Amino acid sequence: MSQENVEIAARWYEVATSKVALLEAMPRTMAFCDPEVEWSAPEDGTTYRGHEGVRKRLEEWLQSFDDYRYEVQRIIDCGGDQVLVEATEVGRGAKSGAEVRSTNFELLTIREGLIVRIREFYDEGDALEAAGLREYAQDHPRRRGKGHPSGGLGGQPRGEHKPG
């Protein structure tokens, strides 16, 4: 089941090549989500619920950008029903026009082929800890989404998938 979850995650992010593609593929995106899905945002702790919540989260986030893409760097099989996705977000600010890049971690819980929970993190150690991967974090440098290096935490992934 774990490899299947990694593949589901990889397919879910396939359309994240541009803001336009993400918005156009919203029905496809919703098809990967359980009707009761929950998405926890790191900025303010808001939890978005259901398909409408996921749609709202994506649309609100994308409003900040003239252009945006989400480049998956790796997908870690955490065992059980979770996968951890590390990606680079690249965008151009809607107001400032400035290009921004940050590393983002999304911990997906997948049951019966559908995403039931999405938890976002900007800190790799926090993401690995939430995924139960403490030993893994001890062996890998900890990264913060804004590019600030720091120490490590730890867990052991079941496997890794690197796109491309």
Sheet of most strands: 7 strands, mixed
Cα gyration radius (Å): 15 Å
Instruction: Give the tally of β-strands.
Output: 9
Label the CATH architecture: Roll
Q: Detail the poorly predicted runs.
A: 144-158
Shape: globular
State the order of secondary-structure elements, H for helix, E for strand: HHHEEHEEEEHHEEE
Report mean pLDDT, rounded to a whole number. 85
CATH topology: Nuclear Transport Factor 2, Chain: A
How many separate structural domains? 1
CATH C-level name: Alpha Beta
Distance between the termini: 22 Å
Percentage of residues assigned to helices = 25-40%
* Continuous helix count: 6
Name the structural class.
alpha+beta
**Percent of sequence in beta strands:** 35-45%
Query: Main sheet: which strands, in order across?
Result: 2-1-6-5-4-3-9
Describe this structure in words.
By secondary structure, the chain is an alpha+beta fold. It has one domain (2-161): Nuclear Transport Factor 2, Chain: A. The chain is 31% helix and 39% strand. The chain is built from six helices and nine strands; from the N terminus they run αααββαββββααβββ. The protein has a seven-stranded mixed beta sheet with strand order 2-1-6-5-4-3-9, with helices on both faces. Strands 7-8 form a two-stranded antiparallel ribbon. A hairpin with a 5-residue loop joins β7 (142-143) and β8 (149-150). Mean pLDDT is 85; it is low at 144-158.
Features:
Nuclear Transport Factor 2, Chain: A, seven-stranded mixed β-sheet, two-stranded antiparallel sheet
